[in-house]
Amino acid sequence: MITIRLAVRDWDYFTPLALGDIKPQGFALKIDRVGTLVDLAASNDYDAAEISFSRYAQGRAKGETALLALPHFLMRGFRQRCIITSEDNPIVKLEQLKGKKVGVTGWQDSGNTWTRALLREAGVNIDDAYWYAGRLTADHPVVDRLSGFGRPGRIEAAPGEHPLIDLLRVGELDAVFTPFMPQGFFLKGSGLRQLQTDFRQAELEYFNRVGYIPGHHLLAFKSSFTEAHPELPQQLSELIEQSAKMWHDKREKYADTTPWLLDDLRRTAQDLPADWNANGFDANKKMIADFGKELFAQGITSHCLTPEDLFPAVKKGA
Question: Where are the domains of the chain?
Answer without folding.
Answer: 3-77+214-310, 80-210
